Amino acid sequence: MSVPAVVAQGLRKSFGPLVAVDGLDLEIPVGVCFGILGPNGAGKTTTIRMLQAQVAPTAGTLTVLGLDAVRDGRRLKARLGIVPQENNLDPDFSVRQNLLIYARYYHVPRAEAEARADRWLAFTQLTEKKDAAIQELSGGMKRRLILARALLNDPELLVLDEPTTGLDPQARHTVWNAIRQLRRDGKTILLTTHYMDEAEQLCDDLVIVDKGRILERGSPSALIAKHTGSTAVEAVLGWSEDGAKVTNASAALTAAGVPHEKLPDRVIAYGPQAESAVATLGASEVINRRSSLEDVFLRLTGRNLRD
Amino acid sequence: MADWPSVPAGNKGPVPRVDLRLGGVLAFVARNRDVYRKTWKTNFLPPLLEPFLYLLSVGYGVGALVGTLNGASYASFVAPGILAITVMQSAFFETTYGSFVRLVFQRTWDAITATPLSLDDVLVGEMVWGAVKSALNSTLMAVVIAGFGLLPWLAIPAVAVVGFVGGLVFAGLGLAVSARVKSIDGFSFAMYLFITPMMLFAGTFFPLSQLPVGARWAAQLLPLTHVVAILRPLAAGTPLAIPASSAAYLVVVALLAPALAVWMMKRKLQT
Ligand SMILES: Nc1ncnc2c1ncn2[C@@H]1O[C@H](COP(=O)(O)OP(=O)(O)O)[C@@H](O)[C@H]1O
Ligand SMILES: [Mg+2]
After folding, report:
1. DSSP labels for chain B?
2. What is the reported pTM?
3. Which residue did the predictor score with more confidence, B208 or B156?
4. Interface TM-score (ipTM) > 0.85
5. Which residue has the higher pLDDT, A243 or B165?
6. Residue A62: pLDDT above 50?
7. What is the domain partition of chain B in residue ranges?
8. Ligand 1 site, CB within 6 A
9. Are the beta carbons of B38 and A92 separated by less than 8 Å?
């Protein structure tokens, strides 16, 4: 039986009066790709920085790969690979030098470090760029180089904080493919994201967090089945100054007991009664579609703007 | 997947307050050394050129007006003063502007503390590197000064040692300042309030005996005064005349200032 990758009990972190992580209980098995989803400020980064022994918890216990994250930081960090949210490549060195110098922090001997650097540069498709300066790299290349850097110590657990935020679609797919391959090779992967399609594509299991608490946990398909059913029906009602059309439609759906969400010009209804209920709303257009994790996420965390 | 022994969380004693390993410090120092080596030509030039400029203008130019001091040339009086200033500036610059750029703009500390290195390793590594630069720059400068006949060649290794110990003092003070500034502009205050007065009033360009009594005592508090007090007998070829009190002062502050810097930085960064 293997030790879970992560066991958190009552994990809390406050910054002065602000509670960033508010009593997290979480167990993550090894060998899965696990997602932490949440809007900005939900506490994702704080959670994983505690997990990678870079931030000390205010309260609770946290065991990662069988090691206490507070007391055994050095031994734990030797077995983790980390892709931080903010790029922190070393601008004083070239692409390949970045890897060689980073390998030194893990006390990897020089010849071995060179072999590993070349292997992971090839894996992340950066071999042609090995002598380039960091400033010459595109956003996607920088993320891939950080991924290569995170693999130098052959980590058991790979922690990725928003690995694809700000990347164009091609660059995102390159990173996704790399993550899938690492998952197949048996690495445990923990990633945070606020892209629902990313979580649906990559994660076997996930939690949705908001305001430092876990709202839900499950596989993407289980969460969709539970919260929205497999289909969503969008009724386009058109814009009106006072929003009366949407308000009235929402009232009708509530009376019929149909779960739904309001948007400025439409309502989205979920569940088996959605289609028949929407038929009575006099919508100018009705769109039947598969419901997605995005629907679940917005139902759970609301539609208010965050930053 | 490998099985790892499960460690029950909690009740395993207090969290270590200091977590320092020599291997970690050296790995960090090696990183800064490698950056330095990439541009070694531009890094070597200033400590070799500066003594020429100083000795020609202040040493011989002003010296012609001053005549001799205690029977020796003014240039020979100023030479250990500019050596001491280099010890101060090299390390202080490294742990103020240098460290701040690595901490804030490049996120180098963040990248490195994600590896087995601890924050203590990084902080001590920054200060050790600052001290190494002081030793390196003052040694290069000492070679030029010895070429002018103002320092015995045999004293150069001793200059390197004083450069390192004195460098630790100023590296510690610099990193402590870095823990307090809100932006990189904050360092110019430290320069005006701390570095420039010390450069002028620590017995560098004129003997402390020229100062009024109160100021003379105040000057004894300045670390640079003691670096000068040690370097001057070394340059004069009379190492036995080095005041033991200055040596003791430097060694003690070379331990206290870095300890203070580590404490202040950890309080700031470990929220
Ligand atoms: N070092 C810090 N000091 C003060 N507040 C912080 C710090 N780090 C994060 N926070 C706050 O904690 C909350 C959670 O932040 P974060 O974990 O970065 O969220 P996420 O990664 O989900 O966007 C936010 O309100 C953020 O402003
Ligand atoms: Mg974040």
Report:
1. ----PPPPPS-S-PPPS----HHHHHHHHHHHHHHHHHTHHHHHHHHHHHHHHHIIIIIIIIHHHH-EETTEEHHHHHHHHHHHHHHHHHHHHIIIIIHHIIIIIS-HHHHHTTTT--HHHHHHHHHHHHHHHHHHHHHHHHHHHHHTTSS-GGGHHHHHHHHHHHHHHHHHHHHHHHTT-SSTTHHHHHIIIIIHHHHHHSSSSS-GGGS-HHHHHHHTTSHHHHHHHHHHHHHTT-GGGS-HHHHHHHHHHHHHHHHHHHHHHHHHH--
2. 0.91
3. B156
4. yes
5. B165
6. yes
7. 22-31+39-59+73-268
8. A 15, 18, 20, 38, 40-46; B 271
9. yes
